[in-house]
């Protein structure tokens, strides 16, 4: 049996731990693993890397993915790319493919299984924690900790200069990172896509706290917040290959409005890809390892068209098509807990 594995979409702490676990389990069963380089692009261009335990054993604490990644969508130019992809699957005699990615990458996997009977197993991945099929995704905990550490450092300069710091996190459609990190650092205000942005209230909170003697402020904002205030609106300048908008930076816009409304010096920091980088936390290493082992077991037992997921602390498998049905919005109870401190 020969299994392939690819990682697609944005990189994520814990991807290498998944690769390591898959290779180990497949090797233990007496079979081989072929790495596909740069996601679906590697299957289109026939770019591969044989994987063995000695090559992958030390990967558990390494960030990124040794296979590389891309946001290539083989269905965007299906007449050109799909035949090449399917031919390369046959050329390497792959009995199954383990696909590690978010909703876009897994959506491609689902279409390949449904329309072309490609044997696939999915592993959900995103730092945004916005896949409805699983309670938590690996990479999320690392991202929250990175944001928390960054804000802890920014707080000292905010205190020194009596400023408000607006910190923009990732979260194109959901506010999981912003909410969790904001709670962890005791932010003065948190803005997420799920809750209408009320900058008048935000400015009122900051002004009242300054009057009470707090001479700095921390506002955490998710990049996907939609803002309409004083004639200014957040916009997107382009779409990716899956048709998703690329945010252009809501943080600086919010910082400008806060400064205008409060007369408090305000600065914006966009953390951007820092949130994806570096070594995964212990929690993410463990979750990624468990998911990788479970995915390999599914493939080895020919249980294709399935997706591994975390449910009530257990790794289970569900139909792959569930991965593309719905975005997992921020649980309102978390925002309720955060907002208790800025009412």
TrEMBL record:
Sequence positions that bind diphosphate: 10
EC nos: 2.7.1.90
Residues holding Mg(2+): 103
Site (Important for catalytic activity): 125
Cofactor(s) essential for the protein: Mg(2+)
Subcellular location: Cytoplasm
Enzyme class: transferase
Entry GO terms, CC: 6-phosphofructokinase complex
Residues that coordinate or bind substrate: 126-128, 163, 170-172, 223, 267, 273-276
Catalysis performed (reactions): beta-D-fructose 6-phosphate + diphosphate = beta-D-fructose 1,6-bisphosphate + phosphate + H(+)
Record-annotated Phosphofructokinase domain positions: 3-298
Catalytic-site annotation from UniProt: 128 (proton acceptor)
Keywords: Cytoplasm, Glycolysis, Kinase, Magnesium, Metal-binding, Transferase
Single GO BP term: fructose 6-phosphate metabolic process
Top-rank taxon: Bacteria
Site-annotated residues for Important for catalytic activity and substrate specificity: 104
GO MF annotation list: 6-phosphofructokinase activity; AMP binding; ATP binding; diphosphate-fructose-6-phosphate 1-phosphotransferase activity; fructose-6-phosphate binding; identical protein binding; metal ion binding; monosaccharide binding
Pfam families: PFK
Activity regulation remarks: Non-allosteric.
Pathway: Carbohydrate degradation; glycolysis; D-glyceraldehyde 3-phosphate and glycerone phosphate from D-glucose: step 3/4
Function of the protein: Catalyzes the phosphorylation of D-fructose 6-phosphate, the first committing step of glycolysis. Uses inorganic phosphate (PPi) as phosphoryl donor instead of ATP like common ATP-dependent phosphofructokinases (ATP-PFKs), which renders the reaction reversible, and can thus function both in glycolysis and gluconeogenesis. Consistently, PPi-PFK can replace the enzymes of both the forward (ATP-PFK) and reverse (fructose-bisphosphatase (FBPase)) reactions.
Assembly description: Homodimer or homotetramer.
Family: Belongs to the phosphofructokinase type A (PFKA) family. Mixed-substrate PFK group III subfamily.
Protein name: Pyrophosphate--fructose 6-phosphate 1-phosphotransferase
């Amino acid at each position: 049996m020969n299994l392939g594995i690819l990682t697609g979409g944005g990189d994520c702490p814990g991807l290498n731990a998944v690769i390591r676990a898959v290779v180990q389990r497949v090797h233990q069963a007496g079979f081989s693993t072929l790495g596909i380089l740069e996601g679906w692009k590697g299957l289109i261009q026939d770019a591969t890397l044989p994987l063995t335990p000695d090559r992958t054993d030390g990967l558990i604490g390494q960030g990124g993915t040794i296979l590389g990644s891309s946001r290539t969508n083989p269905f965007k130019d299906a007449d050109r790319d799909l035949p090449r992809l399917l031919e390369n699957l046959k050329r390497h005699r792959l009995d199954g493919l383990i696909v590690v990615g978010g909703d876009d990458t897994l959506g491609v996997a689902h279409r390949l299984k449904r329309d072309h009977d490609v044997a696939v197993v999915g592993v959900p991945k995103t730092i945004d924690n916005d896949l409805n099929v699983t309670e938590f995704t690996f990479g999320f905990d690392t991202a929250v900790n990175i944001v928390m550490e960054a804000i802890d450092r920014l707080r000292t300069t905010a205190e020194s200069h009596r400023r408000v710091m607006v910190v923009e996190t990732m979260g194109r459609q959901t506010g999981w990172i912003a909410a969790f990190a904001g709670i962890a650092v005791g932010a003065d205000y948190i803005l997420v896509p799920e809750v209408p942005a009320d900058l008048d209230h935000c400015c009122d909170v900051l002004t009242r706290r300054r009057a009470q003697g707090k001479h700095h402020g921390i506002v955490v904002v998710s990049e996907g917040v939609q803002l309409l205030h004083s004639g200014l609106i957040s916009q997107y300048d382009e779409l990716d290959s899956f048709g998703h908008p690329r945010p252009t930076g809501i943080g600086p816009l919010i910082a400008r409005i806060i400064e205008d409304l409060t007369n408090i010096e305000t600065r914006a920091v966009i953390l951007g890809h820092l949130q994806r980088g570096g070594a995964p936390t212990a929690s993410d290493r463990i979750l990624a390892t468990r998911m990788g082992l479970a995915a390999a077991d599914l493939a080895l037992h020919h249980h294709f068209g399935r997706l591994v997921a975390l449910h009530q602390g257990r790794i289970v498998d569900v139909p792959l098509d569930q991965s593309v049905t719905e975005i997992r919005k921020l649980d309102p109870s978390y925002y309720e807990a955060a907002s208790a401190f800025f009412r």
